Amino acid sequence: MTKSLLVAFALMLVLEGIVPFLSPGTWRETFRRLIKLTDGQIRFIGLTSMLAGIILLMIFR
Questions:
Q1: How far apart are CA 4 and CA 20, in angstroms?
Q2: pLDDT at 61 > cutoff 90
């Protein structure tokens, strides 16, 4: 179980690093837009992301 979590974490880091590596300007502009969002909007994005991840885990497991 621990090995699977570490592999998942490593894959997440690789995927998170793709956009700043390939297009740093786009990455920076995305964060500028995120700063303008309210806390509720950011929480909704986080909730949606978590639910999508759970659904994908259920589908592919």
A1: 26
A2: no
Tokens 């297009």 belong to 23
pLDDT of the residue at 1: 82
Burial class (CB in 10 A: 0-12, 13-18, 19+), 3: exposed
Q: Are 20 and 27 spatial neighbours (Cβ–Cβ below 8 Å)?
A: yes
Specify the residue for token string 């690789």.
14
pTM: 0.71
d(CA 10, CA 6): 6
Residue located via tokens 């909730």? 47
Would you list the domain boundaries of the chain? 2-60
> Using one digit for the tens of pLDDT, what is the confidence trace for 6-19?
999 999 999 999 99
